Amino acid sequence: MSNHPPRLRGTFTIGKKFAxxxxxxLINLPxxxxxxxxxxxxxxxxxxxxxxxxxxxxxxxxxxxLRPFKEFLDIHLDHRNLHEVLPIEPTSExxxxxxxxxxxDRLQPxxxxxxxxxxxxxxxxxxxxxxxxxx
Length: 135
Prior knowledge:
By secondary structure, this protein is α+β, with helices and mostly antiparallel strands. It is 22% helix and 31% strand. The protein contains 3 helices and 4 strands. It is elongated and about 70 Å long. The protein starts with 11 loop residues before the first strand and ends with a strand.
């Protein structure tokens, strides 16, 4: 009789948070809406990845392999006016979708694991999440 519990079948999920600071205004809102004026946020972005198998010593994805995503945020979004550098209206919802598309296109083909979701937090109490559908 073994003292080890049986291995269960299932899915492994990891998350990694990143931060950047940026300003924006939502130009498609009426001028009286406060978000139509320039303002800023300390954004927090969380990637959620999943896999049914593990690589290396037991990783869905090595957190170090996510470094290109952090570099993208630092170079292209940090301390910028998002409405000037993004091809989208910079709402948290559309930013989450945009970052998910960047990840799936540029990073996912080169790492194990699959992106499940991107969550963008503007404040401690406000966030938006984009869930990636299976391709």
